[in-house]
Amino acid sequence: MNSRKFVAALSEIHLDNVFNPYSDHCPVHDLATGPSVRRNNLRSYLTAVETLGTDTIWMGRDLGYRGGRRTGLALTDEGHLGNLAASYPGTLPARATRGPAVIERTASEIWAALDQIKRPPLLWNVFPFHPHEFDKPFTNRRFKTSELAQVNELNHQLIRWQGIRRIVCIGRDAAEYATGFGVEVECIRHPSYGGIKDFRAGLVRLYGSELHLDYSPQKVFLL
Prior knowledge:
223 residues; alpha/beta; Uracil-DNA Glycosylase, subunit E; 4-stranded parallel beta sheet; two-stranded antiparallel ribbon; 9 helices; 37% helix; globular
């Protein structure tokens, strides 16, 4: 497996009420080249991760309409594309949308920690697309079991290809899914819906020696 084949396989999946950022075009926000830009974003990112040799994934649930739907990158919004380029040498992230860059709260929390970690993880989601409510493209919903089945084998291929030995699950949905990979699994709370304090405490538990002394569950970041 390589990044080009992997992204091509993702691009071929089409599901109702699911936005595939690697093949679908958003008529409201996307540039004409939007899907192509997002494919390039993910290809260069996965190649950079492979070069770094990381053995850890941070795994969320799915892409949100303010973040990965627009960038094609898990847990990364447009406001943090520069951070991603700095943390993963060789990554060439670009904007796929027009208008002001959109900031997502979850991505802001994720990157407040990632900017301090020496060996960044692979960022991924259980479901690597954006599921939304019927006829409401700018909403978020949990993926269906039948939808997840369409990407399960690709997720397993990603784990094997990248040599992943540990998964840090961000939220319960990821934790329930990750046990099937046969690798070490850690779980921390998702920062949304009042979970910021516990999310930060979980990261301090896992990465305390790498995080700056001022990173604590009580510290408030301006988002």
